[in-house]
Design a protein that fits this description.
about 0% strand
Length: about 150
């Protein structure tokens, strides 16, 4: 696979996992919608930026240590998010999936671990909270330029 092909595969994998990671969280704490949305968007942006930097830093070979690090950070940050009460169960389940994905990227050390991610990890988010959070995200400067809570 060419370097360009590897970068495209990694970015596609990241595009699938990032929204899942940021729409979830763990730890058993809940919080207000607006704080969740802002934290979600900040986490998504940080993941995207750090993964992009890791990919750009990989010259002709894929540096899986550098690529795994943003996924591990994402899993930790995602777990720290405090979802609204009506998303707590969904959020905890999704946080577990994000952590499993981060472990898989780190342990398997190949592009298939990234590109074989579940296609729509947000599909299970209940529609009412998704719509409510999307409306908040549309007015949150932290979410500018991001596609979050899309259904």
């Amino acid at each position: 696979m060419t370097l360009l092909g590897k970068r495209i595969a990694l970015m596609l994998g990241a595009a699938v996992i990032a929204p899942a990671a940021f729409a979830c969280g763990g730890g058993g704490d809940t919080g207000p919608d607006d704080e969740y949305v802002t934290a979600f968007c900040n986490t998504q942006r940080e993941f995207s930026d750090s993964l992009d930097a890791a990919i750009r830093g990989s010259s002709t070979t894929t540096n899986f240590d550098a690529i795994a690090e943003p996924f591990e950070t994402l899993a930790d940050d995602f777990d720290d998010l405090k979802p609204p009460d009506d998303l707590e169960d969904w959020h905890n389940d999704a946080a577990e999936k994000v952590s499993e994905t981060a472990d898989r990227v780190k342990d398997e050390r190949n592009l298939e671990a990234v590109t074989s991610l579940e296609r729509d990890p947000l599909s299970g988010m209940p529609e009412e909270p998704r719509e409510r959070l999307r409306a908040i995200a549309n007015d949150d400067p932290a979410c500018e330029g991001l596609s979050v809570f899309e259904g």
